[in-house]
Specification:
Layout lengths: L1 H29 L3 E11 L2 H11 L3 E9 L1 H7 L5 E9 L2 E10 L17 E7 L2 H10 L3 E2 L5 E2 L11 E6 L5 E6 L16 E11 L2 H11 L3 E9 L1 H7 L5 E8 L5 E9 L18 E7 L6 H6 L3 E2 L5 E2 L9 E6 L5 E6 L1
Parallel strand pairs: 1-4, 5-9, 10-13, 14-18
Antiparallel strand pairs: 1-14, 2-3, 3-4, 5-10, 6-8, 7-8, 8-9, 11-12, 12-13, 15-17, 16-17, 17-18
């Protein structure tokens, strides 16, 4: 009898162990820290000029226009004496934020900034017709960052047939227009109703994909949606980096634009993000992520190779930006991520 009870107990323990092995990853997958990528924000020097550029040239629509100040925003953004004008713009289903620091003013983008520097970030705006989009950008005399639109070749199978072009806004921030061939991209990216359709992703240069995955995938809970290795003359002319060879990884949350890693396998001479970068510097971008908890532990963030800018999660009593608690972090390469709780 005792022997049978021992065998039964062992069987029950094995079943419980198996259930934990199977269900634990499922539970983690059901409740990632990230709910959605809410917006991509960029610091600008002249709000009137930037709003005119994004609305007139790229047909974004204004959603809100607010001014914020006070100790909570100083602590959240890590900028003493901060007074910000924040404008939300929408294109299709996606949104960006423009941040102008009325005080204090930050530093401009270095004139020799390159696409393989670790400060590099852009948003990829999907267009229904690349030739028409390029003609419109030329009409408004935008600054080229690529030599011209590039069609990625057949030997890069995940990206074959994609057309892309980098250009700059009035402050020198890099932007991309991108057109998908018929066999790629979501169905909505093949609409012919408008020229500028929405934002597919924001791209960031990373020094080590695996290290960045520990932050964005393992800590925040984004999923890897696609990978590619891009090289050749078209990629070089797109990025305007001679000899460019990139490992590209696309990550996504349940909703919102993706986050794309650009790891330069060659050349490896991209400059690191300055350790003294501030949110009022014009080379500062921040990806705004709606999260279940805006205050992950310092230990978890540190293990993922990231740093807090704010002193943990900051409570915003006025809620004028639509959320009541937020934290600003920098990923392993210095890119800013703002976690917000609605």
């Amino acid at each position: 009898m005792i022997r049978r009870l021992q065998i039964a107990l062992i069987a029950i323990l094995i079943l419980l162990w198996a259930a934990q092995v199977v269900t634990a990853p499922l539970l983690a997958a059901e409740a990632p820290l990230v709910r959605s990528v809410d917006a991509v924000a960029v610091t600008v020097s002249d709000m009137v000029r930037s709003v005119e550029f994004f609305t007139k040239v790229l047909t974004f629509e204004r959603v809100s226009d607010l001014e914020v100040a006070g100790s909570e925003y100083e602590h959240l953004q890590g900028v003493f004496g901060a007074r910000m004008r924040v404008v939300r713009l929408r294109l299709g289903d996606e949104q960006i934020e423009l941040h102008e620091y009325l005080a204090p003013k930050g530093r401009p983008i270095p004139p020799d900034a390159r696409s393989n520097d670790k400060t590099f970030q852009h948003v990829a705006i999907i267009v229904s017709d690349m030739a028409k989009a390029y003609a419109r950008l030329r009409e408004f005399n935008v600054t080229h960052a690529s030599t011209g639109p590039q069609k990625l070749p057949e030997y890069i199978k995940p990206a074959a047939g994609i057309e892309a072009f980098y250009f700059k806004d009035p402050d020198g921030h890099a932007l991309e227009v991108l057109a998908f061939p018929p066999d790629k991209g979501e169905a909505r990216w093949h609409s012919k109703d408008r020229l500028f359709l929405g934002i597919d992703h924001t791209a960031i240069v990373v020094s080590d994909t695996d290290r960045s995955l520990r932050f964005y995938r393992d800590l925040l809970g984004l999923r890897v949606a696609g990978e590619s290795e891009n090289y050749g003359p078209e990629q070089e002319h797109l990025n305007n980096v001679f000899g460019a060879r990139l490992r590209i990884s696309g990550l996504r949350a349940e909703r919102g634009p993706g986050i794309e890693f650009l790891e330069y396998l060659a050349p490896r001479d991209g400059r690191p993000t300055p350790t003294d970068i501030k949110a009022n510097d014009l080379f500062h971008w921040q990806t705004v992520i709606a999260a279940r908890d805006a205050g992950p532990s310092f230990a978890s963030v540190g293990l993922a190779g990231a740093l807090f800018v704010s002193p943990g999660a900051v409570t915003l009593k006025d809620r004028v930006l639509g959320f009541g608690r937020a934290a600003l972090l920098r990923d392993p390469d210095g890119h800013a991520v703002e976690l917000i709780e609605r």
